[in-house]
Amino acid sequence: MLTDSQKDLVKATVPVLRENGVALTKYFYNRMLGNNPDLKETFNMGHQRSGAQAQALAGAVLAYAENIDDPSVLAPVIELIAHKHVSLNIQAPDYSIVGENLLHSISEVLSISMEDPLIAAWAAAYGQLADVFINAEKAIYEQHQQTKGSWLAWREFKIAKKVVESDEITSIYFEPVDGGDLPTYEAGQYVSVRVFVEELGLKQPRQYTLSTNPQGNYLRISVKREDEKGELAGGWVSSTLHGLAEGAVVELSAPTGNFFLLDSKKRNVFISGGVGLTPMVAMLNQLVTEDMPQPTTFIHAARHGGVHAMKQHIADLKAKYPRLHTVTAYEFPRENDVLGTDYDATGRLDLTTLDGALLPVDADYYLCGPMPFMTEQQNALVARGIPAQNIHSEAFGTGGGYALKG
Q1: How many C-beta neighbours within 10 Å does residue 179 have?
Q2: Which of 169, 230, 252, 269 could covalently link to 297 via disulfide, CB atoms 3.0 to 4.6 Å apart?
């Protein structure tokens, strides 16, 4: 149990964390992965390479220190991370490894003794946080154990089919090697996919949204190939997945996550950018199984028609269901992209220009895309009078990534 004096010591490190938090977390990751190389198959080495993992952890440590008097305000973030940890098969003993390396990193970076009261304060603070995560993750693991067709840790799946959806995105259909049942999951949830990356000589996990509603005999993800762009290196796992042939075997975790369709009986508005449309398509497909009970708005932003995935699928649904309304914005349309047929607006998506009937105040809103896109749409919705509690979002990439996120 943290004492008041220990809380004061943790809070006293806030200025240091603001100034040197990333340096500390970089050191921590190098130390921990150097001492425990097997953990390289749990952590996203791409985010290690880019520094995104260290930056995310620095933000998490700072947020915890700032809210040490009332960590309950971090509950939504803790729930998000707990699902990520379960998808990576993080177990209670892993927290001891992280804690030991974190405390030694604080000692070594700040040049203070391990016997310093500050180390004891952070040990108590970390122990308190670890217990919160362990308990939250235990509940999720137990839920998986009780769900028919679900599983713990990793399960082998073969690639049954690959479908090219755009210049960048390919859908991959997985069937379980063991021929067993698959669970019913919530539309919008994700799995972790673990593949062997030749360049690294080890397995790497990544989270991918299941891009359709439960089908019973397969799981589907839709993966954007992350090519090298300037100083940004290409994606190890996305490139590997795009290169794998049908019949190849990979490992998957069970579906999990706290971003999913909440109420099919309400009006729903889906707003996505780029590959962020994958959970939206899953949710939309779920509404189709219920014959689209309410008017639904599907808004999507893409650079141009060549990278607009699942365009025909959405068009087919729109033709079949008059309650489905769509808006598509192309930021840089190609010469052969036809305004009014392929897309509805040129330039960045601007919600302020849309008819109010497409954005009802009483609807649930779902946002997914790059973080700047998400922030822009969130602000536009609030400015239009949409209650913040009705807006649900999930960023892909490193958005929201803390602690042990892969």
Answers
A1: 7
A2: 269
Strands 268-273 and 296-302, bridge-based pairing: parallel
From 27, 29, 126, 137, the catalytic residue: 137
335 is catalytic: no
What is the DSSP pairing of strand 364-369 with strand 296-302? unpaired
Hey, which residues does 368 pair with through a beta bridge?
272, 394
Compute the average pLDDT of residues 104-133. 93
Which candidate, 257, 244, 245, places its Cα nearest to that of 195? 244
For residue 259, the 8-state DSSP code is -
Query: What are the tens digits of pLDDT across the range 122-155?
Result: 999 999 999 999 999 999 999 999 999 999 999 9
Q: CA angle, corner 374, sides to 316 and 304, nearest 5?
A: 45
Active site (annotated) includes residue 330: no
What pLDDT digit, counting tens, does each position of 215-227 carry?
989 999 999 998 8
Identify residue 356 by its one-letter amino acid code. G
pLDDT tens track for 154-180: 999 999 999 999 999 999 999 999 999
Instruction: Report the SS3 class of residue 330.
Output: strand
Count of Cβ atoms closer than 10 Å to residue 247 Cβ? 8
CB neighbour list of residue 191: distance below 8 Å, 6 or more residues apart: 87, 207, 208, 210, 219, 221, 252, 253, 254, 255, 256
Look at the alpha carbons of 352, 353, 356, 357 in this order and tell me if their dihedral is positive or negative: negative
3-state secondary structure of 369: strand
d(CA 47, CA 56): 10
Residue with tokens 């794998």: 244
Taken in order 108, 109, 112, 114, the sign of the CA dihedral is: negative
Percentage of the chain lying above the pLDDT 90 cut = 83
- Residue 50 in this model has a pLDDT that exceeds 80: no
Is residue 247 within 8 Å of 270, Cβ to Cβ?
A: no
Question: Which spans in 190-310 are helix H?
Answer: 236-243, 277-289
Query: One of 27, 95, 173, 190 is an active-site residue; which one?
Result: 95
Are 241 and 252 a contacting pair, CB within 8 Å?
no
Contacts 24+ apart (CB under 8 A), 143-147: 144/86, 144/183, 144/254, 144/256, 147/183, 147/184, 147/254
